From TrEMBL:
GO terms for cellular component: membrane. The chain crosses the membrane at residues 16-38, 50-72, 134-154. Residues 58-216 form the Lipid desaturase domain. It is a multi-pass membrane protein. This is Kua-ubiquitin conjugating protein. Keywords: Membrane, Transmembrane, Transmembrane helix. Belongs to the fatty acid desaturase CarF family. One of its GO terms (molecular function) is oxidoreductase activity. It is found in: Membrane. The keyword Nucleus does not apply. Its main location: membrane. It comes from the Bacteria.
Length: 218
């Protein structure tokens, strides 16, 4: 596959997406902080519920990362309108040159995930209540942040010398470990698609989940 330059229009789009993601993320986090006192008075076992939301959001992001990765690897092509340039090309290039992602800027690495998160993020901000829907909002804030981190985590898994804290989190399998992700990069690249933490890769592989989806869609 011929390597394509990062176009200026995509740089502008990704930059705007990251800025808007940061804005609405900050608004949601601020509303959560200011609503915490009211919510804590009206909700039993709030600490346990918050921990459950953290786990649910992390696992949800891992699953979504795998599903998107699977679809981009197996359907469409880099010439598919809009999605080809913004999403599919990056995944296909990655198999040809796995280290290419380590040369991408912060904006190029994380812009697409911010872009795809914006519509549901704005909807959650507009359509839900900071107090009555506190746990729902918390779940989605954590989910969006996990999605935002996913491609950065993926990038770290290909770096020869990631930051020390990142290396510790990889070793503890809190985030995607290097050796774990290497399973996906063994030809024919048809397993272990989840790239946030990779916790769901083994269970989904045992269930033949992505193989079933491929048969269904093809």
């Amino acid at each position: 596959m011929e390597t394509q330059a990062y176009p200026k229009w995509q740089l502008a789009l990704d930059s705007a997406a990251i800025a808007l993601f940061a804005l609405f993320g900050a608004l949601l986090i601020y509303s959560g902080i200011t609503s915490f006192a009211v919510t804590s008075q009206n909700s039993e076992f709030l600490a346990a519920k918050i921990l459950l939301m953290v786990l649910a959001a992390w696992l949800s992001a891992d699953f979504v990362s795998g599903l998107v990765h699977f679809l981009a690897d197996n359907f469409g092509n880099p010439d598919t309108p809009f999605f080809g340039k913004v999403f599919i090309y990056a995944f296909r290039e990655h198999h040809v040159d796995p280290k290419a992602i380590t040369r991408h800027s912060f904006i190029e690495t994380n812009g697409a995930n911010c872009l795809v998160s914006l519509p549901p993020m704005i909807y959650i901000w507009v359509a839900t209540s900071p107090t009555h829907d506190y746990l729902l909002r918390l779940y989605f804030v954590l989910f969006f942040l996990s999605i935002f981190l996913t491609n950065q985590i993926h990038k770290w898994s290909h770096m020869d010398s990631p930051p020390r804290l990142v290396g510790a989190l990889q070793s503890a399998h809190v985030i995607l470990p290097v050796a774990h992700h290497a399973v996906h990069h063994a030809a024919p690249h048809d397993k272990y698609y989840c790239i946030t933490c990779g916790w769901l890769n083994a269970p989904l592989e045992r269930l033949h989940f992505f193989q079933a989806i491929r048969k269904l869609l093809k």
